[in-house]
Amino acid sequence: xxxxxxxxxxxxxxxxxxxxxxxxxxxxxxxxxxxxxxxxxxxxxxxxxxxxxxxxxxxxxxxxxxxxxxxxxxxxxxxxxxxxxxxxxxxxxxxx
Length: 96
Hints:
Keywords: Membrane, Transmembrane, Transmembrane helix. By secondary structure, the protein is mostly helical.
């Protein structure tokens, strides 16, 4: 089960980072739209963890709902870090 959660987390991380990269290039400096995929995935992860603790055991691709929630929260956190670092480099003022 742990291996499937790590695999799901890695795949979700890659998807969130790619979507955030596209949204960062398409948005302006003042916009926070580039962070929306990570916010959405974090909320979904929290809901999955809460749902997994209340419902009976549900397996999806070898991981329960709690495992999917943990993988989504992990992907969201890594997505936030990568997006914020990329945003910092994109919006840096060049030294005059």
